[in-house]
């Protein structure tokens, strides 16, 4: 296994065998008791390079990727960066601090970049709350399934807007804890308005260790996003234009053949989604879920538009 590698035919990216093994003994082992999913299936999903192309499709609804200077907050094992640098000529950078359950991500990302001829200094060992970049550096700040794991999500967003150029786009994917599905434990839940509720459900309803649930930032939902963007905009004396929370993507997915990002989620949700789609005449089910702020996930997309600043070119 140590001398093998895996590649993505669509983007020509190589994942070294020792990176796959590192993901297996960290991500695979760590999440096995949490999600109760097959660890090998979890690793396959986690390192699936086609996800990077699907994520690029979503980002490019709002801004082109080609040639842009991009920061990924929480770049994991570097798969998004490697694909986007190779496939879209992105001037890409990332931060990945490591941590419980992800403690080989930074080292793994350096190996992935090196294996694909990309400068390893593009990934920094840093936290989202203190980004090691000057103000107004990037055209795009991107993140996927990271914000809920941070120590201070609002500070991460504020730092992301600080390093974003005037006219640039912030695009972050995150869970919606007002939805009815918890994507880490792969269980159904009621909307979370009280932080101790999820650990209680995990422990007493699903009979699992709630330690990980206690770390999740369950305040994240569409209402929190709107309030937080307003607070940051006021503090920065800058206009932050909320473009989307991902509602239109949710409606599209319910109205056509549903595309799951990972197979382990598909196994749990495919029957439920199929039943909803049968009832979803003129997308009334989707619109009701959105009215209740329950769509999943959130795709937070915001343009930084600060009046009077002309020192940076718009990103879109």
Write a structural description.
α1 (17-35) runs antiparallel to α5 and α3 crosses α4. The protein has a single domain (5-305), classed as Rossmann fold, CATH 3.40.50. The chain is α/β, with parallel strands linked by helices. The chain has helices at residues 17-35, 39-46, 50-59, 79-88, 105-115, 153-162, 197-205, 211-215, 222-236, 247-255, 263-279, 284-291; strands at 5-8, 13-16, 69-73, 91-95, 123-124, 138-144, 164-174, 181-182, 187-188, 239-244, 298-305. α6 links the parallel β6 (138-144) and β7 (164-174). The strands form three sheets. A seven-stranded mixed β-sheet has the order 5-4-3-6-7-11-10, with helices on both faces. A two-stranded antiparallel ribbon has the order 1-2. A two-stranded antiparallel ribbon has the order 8-9. It is globular, with a radius of gyration of 19 Å.
Strand and helix map with partners:
Elements: E1 5-8, E2 13-16, H1 17-35, H2 39-46, H3 50-59, E3 69-73, H4 79-88, E4 91-95, H5 105-115, E5 123-124, E6 138-144, H6 153-162, E7 164-174, E8 181-182, E9 187-188, H7 197-205, H8 211-215, H9 222-236, E10 239-244, H10 247-255, H11 263-279, H12 284-291, E11 298-305
Helix pairs in contact: 1-2, 1-5, 3-4, 6-9
The CATH topology is what? Rossmann fold
Please give the CATH architecture.
3-Layer(aba) Sandwich
Number of domains: 1
State the name of the first-level CATH class: Alpha Beta
Largest sheet: 7 strands, mixed
Helicity, in percent? 40-55%
The H-level CATH homologous superfamily, spelled out, is Vaccinia Virus protein VP39
- Quick one: overall form? globular
Q: Estimate the mean pLDDT confidence.
A: 87
User: H/E element string?
Assistant: EEHHHEHEHEEHEEEHHHEHHHE
Supply the number of helical segments.
12
The strand order across the widest sheet is 5-4-3-6-7-11-10
Which spans have pLDDT < 50 for at least 5 consecutive residues?
Answer: 1-10, 310-316
Class from secondary-structure proportions: alpha/beta
DSSP strand count: 11
Distance between the termini: 44 Å
């Amino acid at each position: 296994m140590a001398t093998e590698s895996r590649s993505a035919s669509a983007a020509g990216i190589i994942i070294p065998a020792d990176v796959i093994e590192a993901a297996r003994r960290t991500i695979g082992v760590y999440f096995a008791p949490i999600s109760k999913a097959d660890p090998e299936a979890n690793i396959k999903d986690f390192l699936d390079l086609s996800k990077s192309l699907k994520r690029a499709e979503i980002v490019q609804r709002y801004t082109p990727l080609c040639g842009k200077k991009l920061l990924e907050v929480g770049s994991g094992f570097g798969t998004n960066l490697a694909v986007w640098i190779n496939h879209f000529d992105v001037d890409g950078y990332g931060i990945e601090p490591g941590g419980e359950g992800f403690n080989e991500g930074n080292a793994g990302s350096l190996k992935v970049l090196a294996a694909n001829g990309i400068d390893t200094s593009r990934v920094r060992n840093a936290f989202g709350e203190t980004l090691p970049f000057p103000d107004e550096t990037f055209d795009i700040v991107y993140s996927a399934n990271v914000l809920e794991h941070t120590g201070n999500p609002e500070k991460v967003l504020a730092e992301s807007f600080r390093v974003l150029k005037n006219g640039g786009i912030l695009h972050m994917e995150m869970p919606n804890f007002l939805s009815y599905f918890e994507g880490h434990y792969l269980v159904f839940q009621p909307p979370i308005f009280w932080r101790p509720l999820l650990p209680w459900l995990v422990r007493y309803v699903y009979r699992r260790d709630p330690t990980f649930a206690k770390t999740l930032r369950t305040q994240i939902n569409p209402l929190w996003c709107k309030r937080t963007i307003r607070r940051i905009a006021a503090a920065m004396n800058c206009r932050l234009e909320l473009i989307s929370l991902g509602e239109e993507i949710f409606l599209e997915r319910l109205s056509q053949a549903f595309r799951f990002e990972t197979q382990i989620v598909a196994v749990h949700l495919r029957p439920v989604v199929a039943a909803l789609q049968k009832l979803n005449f003129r997308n009334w089910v989707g619109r009701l879920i959105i009215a209740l702020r329950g769509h999943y996930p959130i795709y937070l997309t915001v343009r930084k538009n600060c009046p009077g600043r002309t020192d940076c070119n718009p990103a879109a």
